[in-house]
Amino acid sequence: MAAGDGRFDAAITGLGMVTPAGSGVSPTWERLCAAESTCAGPIAGLSGEPVAFGAQVPDFDPVTAIGRRKAWRLDRHNQLALAAAAEALADSGLDPATWDGARVGVVLGVGLGGAASWEAQHRTMLEQGAASMSPMLIPLLICNMSAGHLAMEYGAKGPNLVTVTACASGTTAIGTARELLRGGLCDVVLTGGAEACMVPSIAGGFARMGALSRHEDPAAASRPFDVSRDGFVLAEGAAVLVLERLEDARARGARVRARVSGYGASADAYNPTAPDPHGLGAELAVRAALRDAGAGPDSVDHVNAHGTSTPLNDAAEARLIRRVFPHQPPVTSVKGVLGHSLGAAGAIEAAAAALTLEHSFIPPTANLVSQDPEIDLDVVAGKGREGQLSTVVSNSFGFGGQNAVLLLTRA
User: Fold this and answer.
1) Coil, helix or strand for 239?
2) 3-state SS class at 41
3) Residues 384, 33 contacting (CB under 8 angstroms)
4) What is the pLDDT of residues 118-174, one digit of tens each?
5) Fewer CB within 10 Å, N or C, the chain?
6) Is 340 one of the annotated active-site residues of the chain?
7) Cβ neighbours of residue 10 under 8 Å, at least 6 residues apart?
8) Among 127-141, 282-296, 327-341, 350-364, whose mean pLDDT is lowest?
């Protein structure tokens, strides 16, 4: 809610999730709370590479989820986004048939867009010639179509944006959506992120640069903060949040699941792929989110870490968390269960942070067997932790040194 000091709370009134833990908020939350390991399995066409597994959404049938006509016209990341949006809107209680579409915006985060469609059509061109390619290739692959398809589905004629900040994209999208509400440009914003690039070229590229785990057991490969972590598990997924001004949500009697009370963004200006080893750039984003919310570091009850399970990222993030939050709030990373869904990760984790506040329960970090002694944090492991929570910080950091941080508060 806007206040004299410039503070602004955006109400989260709807959540939708499609993740490697299942299609829907409930199955995803249940698996996070149980710390069930990553749903990792073989990636088709990648059997000869050093890393041949990733975490896909299980049993996702796009025809059932969004209808046959849309299914064949959309890349998989768009299919996941539409499925997540349908759940989020149903959860919010809003009826698109009755809203003023000009006051409804869409902001989605995407990292690589229609990589699967691009690769498939490139293969068709090489094997059968350009005349056999799909005339839908360009709409299938360009990143902005994620937001465009949601707008077309629900008649959202307000600002329509896609943010591309690598693995921070989903978080950047939610922060941008909140600004549209704060600035009075929208009354409702559908926001979040989507990614589906489980294809040989992308997986092979990450493997070749040494970013992916080569653990012998795919289900145990994503192990944030563990001393034996050796890389992330490539994943896919989507999450959509419905944001409204807090006063508007209250006026219509909506259930507010949590509030987005602060947002910060920054750049490392350090290296294309490696994080600043001291987390100095990321720290700027964390402190900016605290200032935006008018909150002190000691008010934070929990940190939902970026926690990718890579040696450099986890160590750098641990240093900045320890520096900014000396009171040692409990920390968790959901990537132990879900893997790393790149542009969608921040949105999925923001939804998880909202659920953490709503249920007063911090899910444990899966696969954390032996915590790295250099990571001096209170990492929740083994089993979840109950307790009254009022403020959660959710971190997202991406290639290019792009950092985005949300501060969520209890409804």
Assistant:
1) strand
2) strand
3) yes
4) 999 999 999 999 999 999 999 989 999 999 999 999 999 999 999 999 999 999 999
5) N
6) yes
7) 177, 178, 181, 182, 243, 244, 245, 246, 259, 260, 261
8) 127-141
Residue type, 317: E
d(Cα 66, Cα 211) in Å, to the nearest integer?
Answer: 33
Look up tokens 């009075």; give the residue: 184
Which class for 390: exposed (0-12), middle (13-18), buried (19 or more C-beta within 10 A)?
middle
Residue at 157: amino acid letter? K
List, for residues 234-260, the tens digit of each pLDDT value: 999 999 999 999 999 999 999 999 999
The answer to whether residues 141 and 114 touch, using CB atoms and an 8 Å cutoff, is yes
**Side chain identity at residue 73, one-letter code:** R
Task: For Cα atoms 62, 66, 71, give the angle at the middle one, nearest 5 degrees.
Answer: 55
Do 64 and 18 meet the contact criterion of CB atoms below 8 Å apart?
A: no
**Radius of gyration, CA atoms only, the chain:** 20
Q: Which two tokens stand for residue 316?
A: 């750098």
| Residue that is written with structure tokens 């001291």 in the block | 278
Q: Which of 167, 186, 215, 302 is catalytic?
A: 167
| Helix (H), strand (E) at residue 207 | helix 200-208
Catalytic residue among 149, 215, 302, 340: 340
Question: Residue written as tokens 């009826």?
Answer: 95
